[in-house]
Specification:
mainly alpha; rod-shaped; ATP_synth_b/b'su_bac/chlpt
Length: 181
């Protein structure tokens, strides 16, 4: 403390200033000057510093609030997106299951249609075979009948004379005419 008081005393004893002057002793004057400057700064700058700190505090708090609101909004959007994803996954599973069942149904329909076609073709084949058999039988009958008729006509022609032949034909024509009516 003695050096501080000595520095004040030395201000008065400076011969070139005549009572007022500068002390060039840096070690003695610096702490005093710093304490005076700091005292003035603290006394006058306390309000400004408090205002700056309060403004900074308010900005930080508003930034935190905005960040919280943005975080909440992002969480809400994330939940909505998750809900949409679950909904889409559910629909995709439904489509997949329905698709598989539709594929199985189409497969079964094609198999049934093919079986029906094969059965129809088999029936048509059997009908065609039956028709061809009947036609062949009818052709054989016709030939047999023609041959028998030719044989009978040959026998009749050789056995009958023309008058008997004429009466037989007339009687047969009469029988056929009676059948038509």
């Amino acid at each position: 403390m003695k050096s501080v008081t000595d520095s004040f005393v030395s201000l008065g004893h400076w011969p070139s200033a005549g009572g007022f002057g500068f002390n060039t002793d840096i070690l003695a004057t610096n702490p005093i000057n710093l304490s005076v400057v700091l005292g003035v700064l603290i006394y006058f700058g306390k309000g400004v510093l408090n205002d700056l700190l309060d403004n900074r505090k308010q900005r930080i708090l508003s930034t935190i609030r905005n960040s919280e609101e943005l975080r909440k909004g992002a969480i809400e959007q994330l939940e909505k997106a998750r809900a949409r994803l679950r909904k889409v996954e559910t629909k995709a599973n439904e489509y997949r299951v329905n698709g598989y069942s539709e594929i199985e149904q189409e497969k079964e329909n094609w198999i049934n249609a093919t079986c029906d076609s094969l059965e129809r073709l088999e029936n048509e084949k059997n009908e065609t075979l039956h028709f061809e058999q009947q036609r062949a039988i009818n052709q054989v009958r016709q030939r047999v009948f023609q041959q028998a008729l030719q044989g009978a006509l040959g026998t009749l022609n050789s056995c009958l004379n023309s008058e008997l032949h004429f009466r037989t034909i007339s009687a047969n024509i009469g029988i056929l005419g009676a059948m038509e009516e």
